Each structure stands twice: as C-alpha cells, then as structure tokens.
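In this section we walk through a basic example: taking a raw amino acid sequence and producing a predicted 3D structure, encoded as discrete structure tokens. The instruction is simple. Fold the sequence below.
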Amino acid sequence: MKIALIVVALKESKKSATQVGAWFKRARLGELRAFIVINQRGKEGYAKGVNKGLKLAQSFRPDIYIVANPDLKKIKISKKILLDAAKKFDLWGYTFKQGKYIYYGGRLDPVRLTGSLEKERGRVDFVSGSLICFNKKTLSKVGLWNEKYHMYYEDVDYCYRAHEKGLRVGVVNAVAYEHLELSKNNKEKDYNLAKSWLRFFVSYAGFNSWMHELVRLPKTLFEYRHLIFEQLKKRPFVYNFMTLNFTSLAIKVLNFILFLFLVRFFTTNQFGLYNLVWAQIGLFMPLADLGTTNYGIFHLKKSSRKEFSNLFSLRLLLSAVIALVTLIYTFSVFRQKELFFLTLLSSPVVLSNAISGSFLIYTTLLSRAYLASYYSLIFNTALIGILIGLVAGKFGLRALFLAEGIWFSFYAVFIWLKTKKLIKLNLSWPKMSYLKIIASKSYMYILLNFFAGLYFKIDLLILQYFKGLNIVGIYAAGFKFFEALIFLGASYTIAATPIYKQHLLDNKPAVKKKIIRDSLLLFSLGMFVAVVSWFVSPLILPLALGKEFIAAVDVFRIVIFALPFLLVSAVCMNVLYLLKKVQWVVAIFVLQIILNVIGNVLFVPLFSYQASAIITVLCEVLNAALTVPLVFKAYEDFG
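The resulting token sequence is shown next.
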C-alpha cells in the first residue's frame, strides 16, 4: 500500500515538518513517501500548500493521502489502525488533544454553517485539517482543495464536498495525537476565521440560512465589532472611505427627520420659502469650491505648509465672493425682503463649508479624513436637534435661520482651530495666477458641479416666479420623498467604482457585461420601487404630511417614475467619469437645463407643479437615452 504524506509548513517550521515526516516513516505504515511543502508567509494559504503536495505525489500513485501540520506530537497510528480506518471511511481523521481539551471531530451549525470542534463523541461533519487522511477515490471525486481559503475552513470545505459526493467521513477514536496549534499566536487568526467562514457561507448557504443571517446581521456585526474596527484601522483608505460615506448617509437621514417636522409644523408658504432660501444658497455653492478640493487632494503634499496656506486663503476669498454674489442675486432677481433677510442669516454656511472643506482636504492628505466625518456628524446632529426644537416650538423661520447662521459660524471657528493644530497657517492674499492653475486642472468638474446643481434647482426657481411660495412648498415636499430614495444611485457608485476601475485595468470585456447587468438590475429595482410607491404612497405619506401638504403626494407619485431612469444614468455616468468623458456629462446637463427651463416656462403657468414633476421624469428618461449609447461608444474607444 502506497502512502503519500504531505506536510505543509512555513520556512521557520521546516524542521518540525521534517520531524513529523520522519515519525510517519518510522511507524512502518506502508510504502510511504513524504512531501514537505514550504509556503511563503502571507502569500500562500494552507490549501494551496496541500494542492502543491497532491500534485507532487501524482507520479507516486498513492493509495492513501495523509495531510498533516508540522505542529503535531505523540502520534501513535499503527498500520492496522490505518488500514481499518481506510476500510471504514473514505476520508477520516483522529481524536486529538489541543490545549486542555480532547476533540472528536467537528460539527457544522445547520443554519449558520459555522464549524466547531466537538468535545464529545457524536456526528462528524468535518475532520480537523491538522491531520486528515483520504483515499485516491476521494481525490478523484472531490478533487483538489479550494485555494480561495487562505487559512481555516479549507478542511471544512473539503469534508463538505466529500459528504455531497456521498463519501464516508468520520473520526477514528482508537488513538489520539497532540496538536500544538502554533497558529493560535497569529494576531490575524480571528480575522482569517471570520473571512473564511464568510466565504464558506456564501458558497453553500441555502435560502433559510441567508434569511436567518440577514435577520441576525446586527447581532453578527456587534459580535465582530472589535475585529471590524481593528481591520479598518489597518486600512486607512477603507476606514476613511466608509466613515465618509456612513457620515453622509447619517446626515441625510437626520435631514429627512427634520423635513418630517417641517411639513408637520410649517405652512406650505413657510416650507416653500425655507426651500427657496437653500436653493439660493446652493445655486452658486459649487463656484465657491472652484475645483480647489480636487486640486488640494490630488496635488498638494501634506508637508507643504505654504501651498496649503495659499489654498486655504483662496477658499476663504472665494467663499466671501460667492456669499456676496448670492445676496446680490437674491435681492436683484426676487426683490423680496424676507427672502433676502433669511438668505443673509444663512450665508455663514458658505464660509463654514470653505473652512470645513479645507480641513477635509488636509486630513485626507494625512489619511485621517475620518476626523472631518466625526466632527461633521456631531455638528449636524446637534444642529438638527436644535432646529427640530425650534420648529416644534413654533419659533418661526427667522429663528430657524438665525440658529443655523450662529451654529455654522461656531462650527467654522471650531474647525479653524482644529486645522491650526494640524498645520500652522500663514494666510495671504491669493494671486490670480494661482487661481488659473487650479481652474485649468479641474474646470470640467467645476462646470459639472455647477450645472448638476442648477439642474436640480431650476424648477423651484421657476415655480416661485410663476406660482408663488405655496406651490414651491408643495412641490418641494413631494420631491423630498423622492430624494430620500436617490441614495440608491449614490450607494451603487460607492460600491461599483473600485470594481470598474479594476476591470478597466485587467479585464475590459467584463466592463461591458457589468454595465448591462447593473443597468438592468437597477432599472428593475427602480421600477419596482416606483410601482409600489404609486399604490402605497396615498396610504402612508398623508400620515407624515401636514394637511396643507396632501397635494405633495401627487408630486411624489409622478417624480418617483424618474427613479429607474436615474439609476440607469448613475451606472452610465459613473463609467463615463472613469473613461475620462466628463465633458460629455457636462454637455448632457447643459442640454437638460435648457430643456428644463423651456419646459417649465411653457407648462408651469398652465399645469403648475404637475408640469415640473412630469418634466423631471422626462428629463431623466432623456438622460438614460443619451448616456447608454454614449457609455458604449466611450467603452469601444477606450484603449
């Protein structure tokens, strides 16, 4: 009987592996040949080492394969015990001592698919990979080990596949060996265990297991909280990326809660004026940045105090200019004292954004962008709490905007001080040549942000001109519920961008398939949400809206059908950005603004907010119709 012994070890445990091989040879189990496989730490997993040994042993044509760790002691397996086990099982292991306990194989949780070693005799679902034996029939039916497992669960996977093939898996209790488990000192053990379990679960979980795990997800995340944070902190990019996006989503949720209070306690005129003020503030806000954020993140060095001071100075100047332009525009176009006064009260937000944005730029350079996220979340949580108190107390719009102005001013001072702690600032009057350098590197993104922002605000301004604040309030309330679902597009972009980047580098054909698959999936999801919302919203939304806002339900039922087309556009525009076709996206937004203005000017006087809602849907349909062929053209032209 030919036996192939495969011992997988790292360089530092090669001596121990050789000793294990020598012991098995002295045991006279049969015609035995040892194959010692030395893995590279961190680069090759245990399964890959086993497969190396299995391939090396092929020419030997063994009847039995023994896979062993190098950290085994007191192995007392005789030829008779080995032959008896080979007659009874196709794949088997032995009782072993690890630490203070003796284990009799392992079991799988039937729902969660987690594996655990058993201290009592009973059902055996898998055999410990520290010492596992199988015959040539098993190898021919099950094949090689799954190399996707770097460490842990590779033995569970192999035994699971053996069970599926109808092979006999068990544990022999006649002998016991000692497993020293050198891997217990590995700091990455918990992480590798969790990652391997997740891979195993994804591979074999059925519907019931998925449903159970989804319901249990909060508990699972809580159990792994320390591990998650430890791993994130080791990956600054991922930690900062997730923190920024979590903060963004949390702030959106907080603002939606504020919106629910506003429509319960404000009249349609008050809510219309509230939205009109923020439309004025946001109209020129992209120009206050003027590409400085992109320039700072991509071109500055964290050690360059002078350059950062110049950038900080420029951002302050731009914010002051834009705040002034906003006030002049508001006064000259609308000529409403109350609108001008409220816009004046809220203007500190422009300066605050300039300072907090500068702080974000520098913390990003330091790989500590999470600081900006934390401060922003704390600030916004406190602000929205104050605003909700003022709204519920019926203090009116002036008190609301005064509180916002004071709080944003306080936040600007706070972030200013935090920035000075990180880097000594030397503010100076920025040179025009410096502005030209920045604008030349990012002018397309400046135009994109400006026109995209205008596209989503122009209907409010036209409604105000033709129909007044009451109609603006109704339209804005219905649109707000639609905005609450737009996060689907943002979430997709966050998740998909790294995948598209990688595919464009090493697997271009996969990009086209992913565009088609993602577009169909998101369109179907969006249409499902739209149809359900059409029927359900008249029953649910009136519970959240005040009596004066009931008509906003009709706005929502119309604009929600823009969602499936908006999601398709999100897929295509995301790829166009990566393919460096930003100018095409800018051109699309310019066209949309022209059509939006023409449509609203012609039809709002006749059909009021219904016209704006329908035009929004038609514009998104056109967006999708334009971006789909453009993205495939850009894809074909991409080198």
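Looking at the output, two observations stand out. The mean pLDDT is 86. The radius of gyration is 32 Å. In the next section we compare this with other chains.
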